[in-house]
Amino acid sequence: MTTKNLPVRQKVSTSPLAGLSSKALLKFIIPSLLGVTAFLIPVEDNGQITIVMAMLSNWLKAELKDYMVLIVFGIVSISALITAYVTLLKPRWIKPTSFISALFSVSTPWLLLRLLGLVMTLMIYYQLGPEWVWSDKTGKVVLEDLATAIVTIFLFAALLLPLLTDYGLMEFVGTLFRNVFQKLFCIPGRASVDATASWLSSAAVGILITSQQYEKGHYSARDAAIIATNFSIVAVPFTLVIAEFVGLGHLFIEYYATVVVTGVAAAIIVPRLPPLSRIPQDYYPPEGKALVEEVPPGQSLFTWGLHLAVEQSRSAPSLLNLLKSAVQNTCDIWFGLMPPLVVIATTGLIVAEFTPLMTWLSYPLIPVLELLQLPEADKAAPAMLVGFAEMFLPAVVATGIESELTRFVIISVSVTQLVYMSEVGVMLLKSKIPLNFKDLIMIFLVRTIVILPIAAMVAHFIVFRE
């Protein structure tokens, strides 16, 4: 029997990268590299380690320094007045499905917060009413430091974030780190990009990424809640500021290493405890579950991740749509977040600075701190709770404590408690992630319970060992 005239069997490729063009690959690589450069690559600026996006934010804030407070004043005023007009009068020319309606037609509590935000901004700007509203320790800090930073940070974040999220980087990295993040932290692998951006840029940027990914259907409700409350840590430059402020700049390496250890430990433990463990694995209704990170049989993590990345880049929005989305996200943060932020942050600082509430609540912590052998436990106890109002407050309390060991533990705990109402808390309450105020209190306390003994042990046996 001859095989001379039999057809040659063609070898069919089953690789997901078969037929991949260089143009499709570059559409994934170039924007993703730009996103990594903007958010994930540490750079030095005036002797401090930061990232490109933060440099742009600081540059714009410096250029507009004489006008920044006025800009915040204008944003709060526009938000409150237009919200009152749209919500109360419901003009016919505004379609219920329009962006303007979504931004300014709000529920009664949010309307009251925006109106109260305008009242408080007027009081702070013109120094009206009781001093505890507009003092250097309360309203002035919120208006001149926190609110102005939000304006510039989110202008650039809204413009640059799509480079990280819309061109395939999260699909690629998410596939590579799928197993690690699922097993350790109970979240999708794509959260690794989210977490890194949070650690290197700011907690606010991390919350923005997380909420957008949840609304697009890439995270479940539990995923989004875990990521937002366990990885949205403050930026590296801010930790250096805190260390210098309490006189521990010479221990910055040890301090940041402790922050990393306690932060990772909390990210492993806290998601397995209530209230996070009880949040359902539901996906945002309009989208549903949009991404499965499982790798088909016979495929490597790298090739399948690259395949998903290229597919995502092919469906990425056009430049015009990206700009439109950036403008909408910026407006949502400016007009939706700014007035509630002024109210909640100022109120939290007033409670912490001008009332004995935090001191009273901290009494049960004194024996715990004494058990952990921390000197000046009675002075340190309030510092473990005031961070819920504003992350910088524990450092302020720590300056009045002589023991370096106690100061070290205070600032290590404060940075990794994460849930502080002056920024992260307001953003979470405003987002569609299903976390309420009671949840935030519980998560803050659970994180504190987990982190405090770890930070104390590291300080005793590694940093300050005798």
Structure description:
This protein has 466 residues and is mostly helical. The protein is built from 24 helices and 2 strands. The N and C termini lie far apart (88 Å). Helix content is 67%, strand content 1%. Helix 5 (108-126) packs across helix 16 (319-354) and helix 7 runs antiparallel to helix 16. A hairpin with a 2-residue loop joins strand 1 and strand 2 (48-50). The protein has a two-stranded antiparallel ribbon with strand order 1-2. It has helices spanning 22-39, 52-63, 68-89, 99-104, 108-126, 131-134, 139-165, 169-176, 178-185, 191-200, 203-215, 221-230, 236-245, 252-269, 301-314, 319-354, 357-362, 365-371, 377-380, 383-386, 393-398, 404-417, 421-430, 437-463; strands spanning 43-45, 48-50. The model is unreliable at 6-13 (pLDDT under 50). It has one domain (22-463).
Keywords:
466 residues, mainly alpha, two-stranded antiparallel sheet, 24 helices
What percentage of residues falls in helices of 4 or more residues? 55-70%
Query: Could you spell the SSE succession in H and E letters?
Result: HEEHHHHHHHHHHHHHHHHHHHHHHH
Average pLDDT across residues?
86
Summarize the biggest pleated sheet. Answer: 2 strands, antiparallel
| Strand percentage | under 5%
Distance between the termini: 88 Å
Q: Which shape, going by the Cα principal axes?
A: globular
Look at the helices and sheets and give the structural class: mainly alpha
Determine the number of helices (DSSP H or I, runs of at least 4 residues).
24
Q: Which sequence of strands runs across the widest sheet?
A: 1-2
Number of strands: 2
* Alpha carbon gyration radius: 24 Å
pLDDT under 50 segments (min length 5)?
A: 6-13
Number of domains: 1
